[in-house]
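re: ur question from yesterday

yeah so i grabbed the chain u mentioned. its 213 aa long if i counted rite. heres the sequnce exactly as i have it in my notes:
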Amino acid sequence: MESDSFTASTTGVSAGGMTLAVNAFGETRDIHTVALHPQAEQFFVDSCHSANTWDEALVTWEKKMEPFKPQPLSGAPAATVVVDQSGEVSGDDLVAWGRLLARLQTPECKAVMVCGGVVVDPASDYDTLGALAAALIRQRLGLFIGVGLGAKPVATQVGLEGSWDGESVWADTPTRAYDYLCDQVHESDVVVVISLQPAALSDLMAQWGEVIR
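ran it thru and got these structure tokens back, copy pasting raw so excuse formatting
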């Protein structure tokens, strides 16, 4: 990501966070965050534009990334869980998350996306459910779970487009999604929960803290 004299490039992604190589205010540095977000580079550039010094930019960037740090979960050892509560999610947003998750996936770390729905915008790069589903399939995530009626169209379309190996499922309620996660997700995995309604999100996370292993 480049804007005027400010640049940022992601050099590392893992379950432990992200590392960016950045240039701002005449200095080049590597910065790290335990948070995960596909717009981390843009967040940094925007922070620089609203700051007068390196320190101000870094503080602002860290505040922008704060909501996307892994959620503290009680109970048994848990997967790394990041919750995006930004609101309405577009196909572009969903694919951007998919690409980020694909970068950190390894044989030991399964990348999982839990989605509560998506808005298909004719003006976006993924202007149909088919185009969006095909783009998600190309990321070859470890698991995609659509939760609730809002996610049924995209979860169904992923299956119709050719789910990579049966890793795309639809759950009609957060409880069913939770049950499936308990069977499939382990401590070394990374899960992003995106676009769930507040009540459904609270229900899922409250249960999750008890059993995930």
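noticed a couple things. Residues 2-68 form one domain. also The radius of gyration is 18 Å.
anyway ttyl
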